[in-house]
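Appendix B. Chain record.
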Amino acid sequence: MSITTKRIIIFLVLIAVGFVLGRLAVRAVMNLMLGGTLFGGNFL
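Structure tokens predicted for this chain:
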């Protein structure tokens, strides 16, 4: 594998991790505002 291929793979992995962490952060903020449980549970 060339250096560019490795760079592209690392870049894609970082994008995937950033996307997952970003979604989790959004869920945590919404959870604090709505007063629910972060992983599952009822809002009502």
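Further analysis of this model is presented in Appendix C.
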